[in-house]
């Protein structure tokens, strides 16, 4: 049981380049999330998808777009990468909205450097 | 009002000692408080969680203490082990929503 799988694991981009981070979960979860983790900043929500067919902005959505391709897959796109987007990106899923018994399950992250 | 303030930033504890990490929040509407544990190179994983209708929750060596009036909650790791060395994040959420507010993390090192 793989859980949440993210690809790629590492990526280096030049300013202005675009890329898509891929995420897939095999737990039949309804909700999926994209977070970024920066030193001293904790985890900040970029976008989330409460259920297939819906997406909503989180705390830091500027510069990103998302697609909930189907129930399993949720991708994050950087259209024109900036050095401020250098971060570790985590995809997560949950069975439903927050609460006891519906924790976030995280992937192992994508380490992105924008030069 | 949406912040969750976590301290300390880093913590070094001897094997067998007690590790204590504290978090404070302002928004009294929060009603779900999980703690996540993250090992290097891995994503965070849920460790333990509490709702504000109880003052304490214990799971093995891990205990959450919750002080609703002070708007504070803390994680206590009893008999700390080198395998507990990780980064710990507190978080707060409105139960039934999709948005967690995470603390900034505490890097714990347990010396053998």
Question: How would you explain this protein's 3D organization?
Answer:
- The complex is a heterodimer of chains A (115) and B (112).
- Chain A has strands at 4-7, 10-13, 19-25, 31-38, 42-49, 56-57, 64-68, 74-78, 87-94, 105-106, 110-114.
- In chain A, strands 2, 4, 5, 6, 9, 10 and 11 form a seven-stranded mixed sheet that branches. In chain A, strands 1-3-8-7 form a four-stranded antiparallel sheet, with no helix packed on it.
- In chain A, a hairpin with a 6-residue loop joins strand 5 (42-49) and strand 6.
- The model of chain A has no long low-confidence stretch (mean pLDDT 94).
- The N and C termini of chain A lie far apart (36 Å).
- Chain A is an all-beta fold and 115 residues long.
- Helices cover 0% and strands 54% of the residues of chain B.
- Chain B has strands spanning 4-7, 10-14, 19-25, 33-38, 45-50, 56-59, 62-67, 72-77, 86-93, 100-102, 106-111.
- In chain B, a hairpin with a 4-residue loop joins strand 7 and strand 8.
- In chain B, 36% of the residues are buried.
- At the A-B interface, strand 5, strand 9 and strand 10 of A face strand 5 of B.
Instruction: Please give the number of β-strands of chain B.
Output: 11
Number of helices of chain A: 0
So what's the overall shape of chain A?
globular
Main sheet specs of chain B: 6 strands, mixed
Described by its quaternary structure, the protein is heterodimer
Task: Tell me the layout of helices and strands.
The complex is a heterodimer of chains A (115) and B (112).
Chain A lengths: L3 E4 L2 E4 L5 E7 L5 E8 L3 E8 L6 E2 L6 E5 L5 E5 L8 E8 L10 E2 L3 E5 L1
Parallel strand pairs in A: 2-11
Antiparallel strand pairs in A: 1-3, 3-8, 4-5, 4-9, 5-6, 7-8, 9-10, 9-11
Chain B lengths: L3 E4 L2 E5 L4 E7 L7 E6 L6 E6 L5 E4 L2 E6 L4 E6 L8 E8 L6 E3 L3 E6 L1
Parallel strand pairs in B: 2-11
Antiparallel strand pairs in B: 1-3, 3-8, 4-5, 4-9, 6-7, 7-8, 9-10, 9-11
């Amino acid at each position: 049981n793989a859980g949440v799988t993210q690809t790629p694991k590492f990526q280096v981009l030049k300013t202005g380049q675009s890329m898509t981070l891929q995420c897939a979960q095999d737990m039949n979860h309804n909700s999926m999330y994209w977070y970024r983790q920066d030193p001293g900043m904790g985890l900040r929500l970029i976008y989330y998808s409460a259920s297939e067919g819906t997406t909503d902005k989180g705390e830091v959505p500027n510069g990103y777009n998302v697609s909930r391709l189907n129930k399993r897959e949720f991708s994050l796109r950087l259209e024109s990468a900036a050095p401020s987007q250098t971060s570790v990106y985590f995809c997560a899923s949950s069975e439903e909205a927050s609460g006891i018994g519906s924790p976030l399950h995280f992937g192992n992250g994508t380490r992105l450097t924008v030069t | 009002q949406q912040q969750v303030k976590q301290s300390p930033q880093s913590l070094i504890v001897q094997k067998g000692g007690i590790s204590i990490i504290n978090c404070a929040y302002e928004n009294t509407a929060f009603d779900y408080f999980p703690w996540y544990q993250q090992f290097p190179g891995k994503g965070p994983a849920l460790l333990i969680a509490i709702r504000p209708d109880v003052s304490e929750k214990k799971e093995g060596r891990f205990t959450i203490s919750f002080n609703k009036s002070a708007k504070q909650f803390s994680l206590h790791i009893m008999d700390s082990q080198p395998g507990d060395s990780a980064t710990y994040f507190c978080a707060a959420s409105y139960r039934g929503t999709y948005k967690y507010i995470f603390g900034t993390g505490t890097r714990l090192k347990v010396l053998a």
